[in-house]
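Feature request disguised as a bug report, sorry. It would help if multi-protein outputs had a clear separator. Right now it looks like this:
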Amino acid sequence: MIDAFRRASAGRISAVIPYYGYGRTDKKDQPRVPITARLIADLITTAGANRLLTMDLHAPQIQGFFTIPVDELTTLSILNQYFKEKALDNLVVVATDIGISKRARDMAANLGAPLAIIEKRRLGNTGATETLNVIGEVQGMRALTVDDEIDTAASLVGAVNTLLEYGASEVYACCTHPVFSGPAIQRIASCPVKEVVVTDTIPVIGNKKLDKITVLPIAPLLGEAIHRIHTGLSVGAMFE
């Protein structure tokens, strides 16, 4: 599509990719594996895109893989507003691992809640994880886990079970990208999580719709960003 626009002499091509696939392959963490996040960046740039608009990259340094401007939006304002309206009392925001702790800290500050962090480690290159500890107080509190995406939901189920074992009264979860691959829906359905709140960077359709899954729209956020890009206004000012 980008190549077709370029060959049709488009004056400017902005690629809007809400979910940047392969974002987790941003480094060589095992022998003989590709850095696919960089490869996709090269393909998009070579095809002729002049700018990229995306949301909540798995790792912010992925922006450096591009030689064109990258605007990374965040859905924190959307998720914050939703949970502010729910007005959950005795709330603690929980980062599902240390890597997501900054995002969770920002959300905790916005909601006026304390922060806890689940310390875990990945086992090999299989995606499996082992929970080591919960840093912070969750006993008797409503826990809200924060992550950038839910893929197979194995990490989500592990986090929910760990928090309940540590004494949380109930657990909510939120993320930006509902990948929901493989057994994710079955795991969420049988998991004791109270509610899973996601956005529609990836459509949640068909049998992926569950009563406990709430989908929030990103269209207003994307629309405002696209308007600002094409009128020369600041995109960063949206989050000030």
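(second protein starts here, but nothing in the output says so)
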Amino acid sequence: MCDIGDIVLPGDKIDNFVQSKGKVLLGPGLQRDGEEVIAVRPGIFKYREPNIYWIESHQKRYVPSKDEDVIGVVTNAKGELFKVDIGSSEQASLSYLNFEGATKRNRPDVKNGDLVYAKLSIADKHAECELTCVDRDGKSKGKGCLPDGGFMFQVPLHLAHKLRHPDCPLLKYIGKETAMEVIAAMNGRVWIKSRSARETIAIANAISAAEFLNYDKMKDFVDNFMNELYLGSS
């Protein structure tokens, strides 16, 4: 039996789920095998209310999982299916129709090298991964090609997951001090756009430096970071 917080290995059976109403949601690192749930990557067994479970690991290569949000780089924008590098062992495909408002007569303006923020609609080890930039109602909800002028960098996967956690206050604290847009994706890529290149790089450095920082230390960390940023510009 695996308890919350235990270290698990690929193939370990996970059967110690907290009793709660509603459907159990399996996050990264967990997979159903018939009636059982098994770990498919090494790491720490994690739980978040109401009923979300996942394996937190420090792996370097991203393993795609269905419904995860990723940032990709378009490598081939020709034809009906764009090829997109999402940092995994294989590239993913993205149909030109999977953009808000796209039709056969109204193709999205996508070029090689563009960054796209998308969701994995299919992630199967036996088939090519597929991306979409719209929900079931055809709305983008923030997905699509990212605007020019931003900066993308790579962080460890566990840091990207930490930034996306609703309890993590780091980006909220930074956002109170300086105007910025930030997207942290499940494949370990973070995209930033701020008022200047100097601020963008400073924010990226702050995010990277907060990798092992506890939540209760982040307010003081951001205050010190902003003081150094503004003192350095005076």
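Even a blank line would do. Unrelated, but nice: Helices lie at 157-164, 170-177, 197-209, 218-233.
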